[in-house]
Specification:
By secondary structure, the chain is of the alpha+beta class. The protein is built from 7 helices and 15 strands. The structure holds 2,5-anhydro-1,6-di-O-phosphono-D-glucitol and manganese (II) ion (3 copies). This is Fructose-1,6-bisphosphatase isozyme 2. Pathway: Carbohydrate biosynthesis; gluconeogenesis.
């Protein structure tokens, strides 16, 4: 059998960011240190996800979280991994996790200058049926570079210095941006390294896929109904394909790769939408914007929203710039 030659000069995630760090005047290396700990969390979660059925990590933990959701066993493991690895990176002082009601403070002797908001396991409802799931994180820094405290937790997306997601899909991939392009690293399980496979990912200007949970159609505003109807009406132009995984990371990675739009609008049941601003919408908006796309709450860019609560939710319309423009125009017309 012909084995792929082991590429002797493949670029690993850390060597890529070390090179990036060298270009930044008086860089301390702390961000690279932080990314190294996130990388370890991703590798460990990837291994746990792929063996969950064997090591009895399917099913629920028996607890309910601040979101009112049933917490899965893998949610708990992923959350503890992120918290412990971020603490031991000596680069973080406060964290916000989907799974923790209040801000997590790092002990004084291990504090660093970053705040990290993360969704340790995204798409938990898809764990037991082996459909793709993910992890999402955003790294924030205060403008004055001082150590953030609990009262600094409510930073807007304009304070993000890096954000990424890990997709535990048919392969495990980390997609990450520090503001200078968006880059994809595939986990090679035979050597346990994330290898650069997609340099400078760019989202097409327009796609032909719309991604939304149509089960809520009866709960949408008229503008959303009109937009989705248009995508299925040949008299309005070329119809789109419908794709919805129900894991934000999977739906958004496909949107970046193929183009199109991901929508989670307000519903009568969730008037501010379901997705959480700090650790789902902001990181994804930062990444997609750096890939040449856009992300709006229907009125303003997601990155401009000033949070008032660490678990606040927001409607989100994200993806190819022309597709997002189209629905925002319909929403504005209806107001
Ligand atoms: P999480 O599993 O971290 O709570 O996130 C689930 C989210 C997101 O992954 C996905 O886009 C959305 O829930 C799907 O919601 P619906 O099932 O309401 O469509
Ligand atoms: Mn959840
Ligand atoms: Mn999530
Ligand atoms: Mn989650």
């Amino acid at each position: 059998t012909s084995h792929q030659p082991l590429d002797a000069d493949s670029i690993t995630l850390i060597s890529f960011f070390l090179e990036h760090q060298k270009k930044i005047p008086n860089a301390t290396g702390e961000l690279t240190q932080l990314l190294t700990s996130i990388q370890t969390a991703a590798k460990t979660i990837s291994s746990a996800v792929r063996r969950a059925g064997i090591i009895k990590l399917f099913g629920t933990s028996g607890t309910t979280n601040v979101q009112g959701e049933e917490v899965k066993k893998l949610d708990v493991l992923a959350n503890e991994l992120f918290i412990n690895l971020l603490k031991s990176s000596y680069t973080v002082s406060i964290m916000v996790s989907e799974e923790n009601e209040t801000v997590i403070e790092v002990d004084k002797e291990r504090q660093g200058k970053y705040m990290v908001a993360f969704d340790p396991l995204d798409g938990s409802s898809n764990i037991d049926c082996l459909v793709s799931i993910g992890s999402i994180f955003a790294i924030f820094k205060k403008p004055d570079n001082s150590v953030p405290t609990v009262k600094d937790a409510l930073m807007s997306g304009r304070n993000v210095v890096a954000a990424g997601y890990v997709l535990y899909g048919s392969a495990t991939m980390m997609v990450i941006s520090t503001g200078d392009g968006v880059h994809g690293f595939m986990l090679d399980p035979t050597i346990g390294e994330f290898i650069l496979t997609e340099h400078n990912l760019k989202i097409p200007k327009r796609g032909n896929i719309y991604s939304i949970n149509e089960g809520y159609t009866h709960q949408w505003d008229e503008a959303i109904k009109e937009y989705v109807q248009n995508k299925k009406d040949p008299s309005k132009g070329k119809t789109y394909n419908a794709r919805y995984v129900g894991s934000m990371v999977a739906d958004i990675h496909r949107t970046i790769k193929y183009g199109g739009i991901f929508l989670y609008p307000a519903t009568t049941a969730s008037p501010k939408g379901k997705l959480r601003l700090l650790y789902e919408c902001v990181p994804m908006a930062y990444i997609v914007s750096n890939a040449g796309g856009s992300a709006s709450n229907g009125k303003i860019p997601i990155l401009d929203i000033q949070p008032t609560n660490i678990h606040e939710r927001t409607p989100i319309f994200l993806g190819s710039i022309e597709d997002v423009e189209e629905i925002v125009d319909i929403i504005k017309k209806q107001c």
